[in-house]
Design brief:
With 115 residues, the chain is mainly β. The protein is 0% helix and 55% strand. It contains no helices and 11 strands.
Length: 115
């Protein structure tokens, strides 16, 4: 299964430094398989439980993404790692499913700056 370039539902803005996305998942909806190529942070506008799947579509686990939460992630090789105390690690190539009963919505900001 190939991975897509879009890490959000709708690209809202892009310049030399950032890409700003809106991301929406209805209950039970799954994203296409996609690959993150930049560090990023997301802010949860409408929270739910998110389920994560690897490139082979194997279930890796779930976590709560409550309204108002902020998730900063750093790309480390082929993995994404939270830079706060949430302790989340996930493959850079993955899919996510809304495992909750309500719509999920976030704003995601990718940093295009090189390290």
């Amino acid at each position: 299964m190939g991975a897509t370039a879009n890490v959000g539902t709708t690209k809202l803005f892009e310049n030399d430094d950032i890409i700003l996305w809106e991301f929406v998942l209805e209950p039970g909806e799954t994203t296409p398989m996609h690959t993150h190529r930049h560090d990023y942070v997301w802010y949860v506008l409408e929270g739910t439980k998110l389920e994560v799947f690897n490139e082979q579509n194997e279930y890796l686990g779930a976590f709560d993404a409550p309204t108002g939460a902020i998730f900063p992630l750093r790309l480390e090789g082929d993995e994404l790692v939270t830079t706060d105390d949430k302790g989340i690690r996930a493959p850079a190539t993955h899919a996510a499913r809304n495992g909750g009963p309500t719509r999920y919505r976030e704003i995601l900001i990718e940093s295009k700056k090189k390290k």
